[in-house]
Amino acid sequence: MSRSGPRLTSLPVKSRTIRAPRPGRNRRPSSFRTPASDLNGHSPTGGVASDTSLILKAPQSAGTNAPATLVPTNGASALASSSRFRLLTPSDIEQDASPAFLIDDFLVEGSFAVLAGEPGSYKSFAALDIALCVATGRDWAGRKITKRAPIVYIAAEGGYTLKPRLLAWQTRFESAHKESYFLKHPVQLCGSADVRDLCFILDGYPNKPGLIVIDTLARCMINGDESSSRDMGQVIDAIQTIQNSTTAAVLVVHHPTKKGGDIRGSSALLGAVDTLIMTSKTKDHMTLRCEKQKDSPQFTPIRFAPTEITIGHKLSSLVLEYGNPRQAVSTTTAPFIDHPVDPGKSLNVHQVNRTHKATVHSSSELARDKRLLAVLAGFASPGATTSKWGNTCAEEGIDRNAFYRTKRKLVATGQIKQHDGKHWKKVDSNANPPS
Question: Per the CB 3.0–4.6 Å rule, which of 38, 191, 248, 384 could disulfide with 223?
Fold first, then answer.
C-alpha cells in the first residue's frame, strides 16, 4: 500500500536529517517560501549555500540555558551593509531620542496628525493658526511652542482665501509670520511623482520645516479612492516619505463621514495616525476634541471664539480667539462691524447696547456683503457655481441661510450676475452701462 500525502526527500545537515516537502508540490504561499539558504547554511535543494547566509550558533557547553544567536558570515555582512534593513538590539533602541512635543500636550515632533471636521467648522482656520504659531513661536491655546520652526502650508483647495486670513491673523496678533511657506496647489499623494518633487524642493532650504499642513486630504488624493485600503496605504506611505525626508510633523485636514464622529475613508488612516482631532462648532464658538493620542494622554477639549477682523475697507476674515467666546475681546477686533474701533475701548458683540443693535445689524450685513463678494472675486473665470460659492463661504464661517439671503440681495442690487446660466461673477462697477 502506498503512503498518502506528499513524497518527502531528505536534506543532509551535519549529523541529522531534515525532511522537507518535495519541490513543486504542496508549496507554501510565496510570502512564506524558504529563502535561498536556511539558517544552517544549506540550500533547500540539498546543496551547500554560498557564504551569504546566517548561521544559528548554539551554546558551546551542553546543558546551558543561554540562547542561540544569529551570526552572519562574511558574505551576509557585506549584503547587510548595503541593505536598508538593520536589526536593532534593545541597547540600540534605548539610544533613540524620546518623543518631544512640538506644541505642549498637543502635537508631537515628527508625528502624523489628522484634523477633521464638517464644512464650516473652522478646521482650516485652526490648522492655519497652529502653523503660524509654530512659525512665530507664539503660544497656541495657552500652550508653549517648544520648538519654533519653519512651516509649509499646502492650500490644496485654492489659495485665494490665504491673503485675507493671513492679514487678519497678523492684524490681530501683530506677529510677523516669518519662515512660513505656502503652496497654492495640491500635492498628489497617490500614484504620482509629486511627493518626490516636494521633498526635493524642501531639501534645498537650509532650515528644515517643523510642521507641514496638507489642506485637504481629498484634494491631494484625486488619483485614489479614500475607501480603498490599497490607495490609503499609498497615501500613508507618501506621508511617511515626507516625514523621513524632513523630520517634520504632518498635519492633514480631512472630513468626517456623513454621519459624523469618524473620519472618512479606509480605517487604515485611523490606524496610522498618531493624533486625531475632531472639530465641532456652535453659534458662538468652535471646539477641538482629541479622539486619539498615541503614547500620550488625550488633551481636554480646547475652545475658541471665531472673531471677525476687518482689513481696510474691502477685506475681512476670521481669527480664532482662545477661551470663552464672551471673553474674546480685542482692541483691534470688531466682530461683525466694519468701521474703525476706538483703540481705547474694547468691543464685545455680546455687550452691545440695545440702542446700538440696529447699527450693529446694518454693519454686519454690509460686512457680510463684502465677504461674499471677496470670495466670489477669488474664483477664476468663468466664475463660481452656487454650490462652490456656498461651500467656500461655509468654510469662511458664513451660515448657509445667511449666504442665500445675502446672495439674493446682491442679485437684487445688481452687484452680481449669472452670465451663462450657471456661473456667478461680480459686476464691474466701473464698466460702462449698456446703451
Answer: 191
Under DSSP, is residue 10 helix (H, G, I), strand (E, B) or coil?
A: strand
The H or E element spanning position 267 is helix 267-272
Q: Across residues 243-262, what is the average pLDDT?
A: 91
pLDDT in tens, 106-134: 999 999 999 999 988 999 999 999 999 99
Asked whether 161 and 132 are in contact (CB, 8 A), the reply is no
Residue corresponding to grid cell 456667478: 424
Identify which of 56, 41, 51 has the alpha carbon closest to the alpha carbon of residue 11.
Answer: 41
Taking CA atoms, 412 is separated from 402, 406, 408, 415, 417, in Å, by 15, 10, 6, 8, 10
b or e along 29-58 (b: 16 or more beta carbons within 10 Å of the residue's beta carbon)? eeeeeeeebbeebbbbeeeebeebbbbeee
CATH fold of 101-320 reads: Rossmann fold (3.40.50)
Residue 24 to residue 10: CA distance in whole angstroms: 15
In this structure, are residues 68 and 59 in contact, taking their beta carbons and an 8 Å threshold?
yes
User: For residue 101, what is the enclosing H or E element?
Assistant: strand 101-103
C-alpha grid cell, residue 52: 551569504
- The Cα–Cα gap between 109 and 297 comes to 16
Cell numbers 463661504 correspond to: 393
The answer to whether the beta carbons of residues 191 and 232 sit under 8 Å apart is no
Q: How far, in whole angstroms, is CA 135 from its chain's centroid?
A: 17
Q: Which three cell numbers stand for residue 134?
A: 509654530
83 burial level (CB within 10 Å; 0-12, 13-18, 19+): exposed
Number of H helices, E strands in the chain: 10, 17
Residue ranges, CATH 1.10.10, the chain: 352-426
**Mean pLDDT along residues 131-146:** 94
109-113, 383-387, 419-423: which has the minimum mean pLDDT? 419-423
Q: State how far the Cα of 306 lies from the Cα of 301, in Å rounded to an integer.
A: 16
Return the higher-pLDDT residue of 39 and 218: 218
Question: Rounded to an integer, what distance in angstroms lies between the CA atom of residue 86 and that of residue 156?
Answer: 37
